[in-house]
Amino acid sequence: MKFKIITLSFAVFVVLTSVLFAQEQQKYWFFFTDKGQSLSKSDFEQARNRLTDRAIWRRQKVTPPNQPIVNMTDLPVNENYIHRLQAEGIEPVIVSRWINAVSAYATKSKAEQLTSLPFVEKVQRVAVFQRDPIPPQPDLKLRKPKTPHVLDYGASFEQNALENIPKLHRIGVTGKDVIVAIMDTGFSLEHEAFDSTHVIATYDFIHGDENVDYEADQDVRDQPYHGTAVLSILAGYANGTLIGPAFDASFLLAKTEELASETQAEEDYWIAAAEWAEINGADVINTSLGYMDWYEYEDMDGDTAPITIAADMAARMGIVVVSSAGNEGNTSWRYISAPADGDSVIAVGAVDSENILAGFSSVGPTFDGRIKPDVVAMGVNCVNATLSGGYSRGSGTSFSSPIVAGIAALILSAHPELTPMQVRQALVQTAGRVMNPDNMYGFGLVDAFEAVNYYGPVFEIPDTTNFVKNYPNPYLRGEHDNIHFVLNIKELTDVRIDIYNILGQKVAGLEREQMLGKEVEILWQSHLPAGVYIFRISLGTKTQTGKFTIL
């Protein structure tokens, strides 16, 4: 499937203020009552046209039959409302379609005054990002143990093996054809661990450009450290040192956390990045951060923080949202922070290599009594890439979250038809404490291999095959005419293709006699119902199995 990148469909204004201005004003959300009264069918058609084909396909998985894939949340914020605020001296920073609001700087008295406008539903302060990271160790000469696997994980073996990831890599499940969006401090892609990483697009939501690396006139020097470490744990590939669970996935990288000022990162940048990622077809979002600031524990109910509302909305649009639970386990706060409190967000706690909960890992429940975190993964002494080009070990739920996000990508790579809640179910129902969950470990340590196989078995693909590929996958009924099987046939031979459902029952088949050639295409017109199917190709005495999905 081709990737079509959509530019920002919402306004992003960089507001440069003096220190005095920042002291006098704070950033607020201005929520609007509606999107205007003169809406037409063409407004919804334009909203659909802004989506990539990939985003449309992903939304179809979660949209009920005969329902449109776009709705009011996709329509732009009413421009007349924005102009009215500007007339009052309020200049928007972020304009969000999803929550129908703008963020902007204002004095407290001015914000309160504007609540009297008939189209302003409420005004609420924008939350500030909070993180208490465990300082990274300096660059290390990492021991490179021999591992009995196809890939040489080196020192990163523990953080993969604890969750049973290498077993999936051995059979070819590596995140291919899945798009993962990461919101973080920035990313330095010059590291060897990213030499083969497929980055589709980048955007800096703080400064309004496409550079997500360090910028001397804007950033502190270690601005991209955290994001670089997170990306490397999820997607890095440096043979013999560091391999991430989803190294074959594709990535959208968003710079949303500012370290240079006292305000650090703010949730409005995250929401803008989520809208950007969704419209560009993201399947998974990883967010290794949490927002507390002026929030109280009572606000961790899944329905209060705008970032949580937006995260749950992304899940309803078909995106698996994975968030670190937080590093507040040893503080007076103790609890998870937004957006980990979302009911559709997969909150991840941290354990060490012995599956013992890290003392810093934030706990639950949510204020309304739901179990959090959802699951745990290794988040102590994880191998990660550094800005110097070397490697170190770091700890935090910031590092357990990308491991689970990578596993979510593996699940979708094997089962692209799954919805976010089905992915969550696969993770939870195969986790180590599913029979006895609590508010420290959640449902327990994730098991990547069992989670991928929860909705049907994954077959090993031998390297000796003549099979090249099959497409389109998924096959969309009504949009595609045929399923194509592409083969390299080196010797004149008969070809047989048998189709099975996930119960192993043969449901279709076709034969072709005496075929020969490179990239020979065999077309098959499907009349099967929607679902996941296994194919077995026989070329003489050689066989090949694979999987495709019909939607």
Report on this structure:
The protein is an alpha/beta fold and 551 residues long. The chain folds into three domains: 19-126, no CATH class; 154-200 and 233-248 and 282-452, Peptidase S8/S53 domain (Rossmann fold, 3-Layer(aba) Sandwich), CATH 3.40.50; 467-550, Immunoglobulin-like (Sandwich). It contains 13 helices and 22 strands. The protein has helices at 19-24, 41-49, 53-60, 79-87, 108-114, 157-161, 166-170, 225-235, 267-279, 306-316, 397-414, 420-429, 448-452, and strands at 26-32, 92-96, 101-106, 120-125, 129-130, 179-184, 198-204, 237-238, 242-243, 250-255, 284-287, 290-291, 320-324, 345-351, 375-378, 382-385, 391-394, 467-471, 483-501, 506-524, 531-539, 542-550. The strands form six sheets. Strands 7-10-6-11-13-14-15 form a seven-stranded parallel sheet, with helices on both faces. Strands 18, 19, 20, 21 and 22 form a five-stranded antiparallel sheet that branches. Strand 8 and strand 9 form a beta hairpin. Helix 8 (225-235) packs parallel to helix 11 (397-414) and helix 9 runs parallel beside helix 10 (306-316). The protein is globular, with a radius of gyration of 24 Å. Residues 7-23 and 461-465 have low confidence and may be disordered.
Mean pLDDT: 87
CATH-assigned homologous superfamily of the largest domain: Peptidase S8/S53 domain
In CATH's first tier, which class of the largest domain applies?
Answer: Alpha Beta
CATH architecture of the largest domain: 3-Layer(aba) Sandwich
Q: Span between N and C termini?
A: 15 Å
Low-confidence stretches: 7-23, 461-465
CATH topology of the largest domain: Rossmann fold
Biggest beta-sheet profile: 7 strands, parallel
Structural class: alpha/beta
Number of strands: 22
Separate helix tally: 13
Question: What amount of the residues lies in strands?
Answer: 25-35%
What coarse outline follows from CA principal-axis ratios? globular
Evaluate the radius of gyration: 24 Å
Q: What portion of residues is helical?
A: 10-25%
Count of the domains:
3
| Largest beta sheet: strand ordering | 7-10-6-11-13-14-15
